[in-house]
Amino acid sequence: MRAFVLRTSRALAHIAERMPRERLLEAVGAATDTDVLFRSLREAAAFGAEIEPDDPDPLTEALLRGSEMKREMLKAEGGAVSAQELAGHLSMTPQGLGRKRERNQVFWLEAGDGYVYPAFQIGRDGLLAGIREILGAFTVEDPWMRVNFMLTGDIRLGGRRPIDLLREGMVDEVVMAAAAYGEHGAA
């Protein structure tokens, strides 16, 4: 852990030295430490502060943009909760929640050594009605693709977000769109 902190501190110092003052102040003004880090890294990728000229990594900026988009997507709908938090809301143990995850009955994402659960699926009295059916309909297995489906407009749903229709009780429509999501030629 010490080596990680040392190396990332050196990289951030290198970035800060090269970042224009106004961008540095903008990054520091972010709401959380994580947001400061993401803004700094995005700026570094934009002007190549940490990318060595003899070994450029053309994917760095795209990876950072993708990570930030994922964070923003989740933040817009309440973020993600820990297994302990969701299990408590569902009046079950974290082990029981783990079994639900393994049975594909709850949206989840890998986070470090464990899992987090997108908050968008939580209703007043447990999971939103239809979550199980939607997860069962997917042909895609990637957890981020599933979350992306729920939180972005879908042509099969008139451009509306599946999560919004689900909250309106339109389970069958969302299930049909989830079943077609990721198919070749499907929108």
TrEMBL record:
Domain of life: Bacteria
Identification of the protein by name: Antitoxin Xre/MbcA/ParS-like toxin-binding domain-containing protein
Source organism of the structure: Labrys miyagiensis
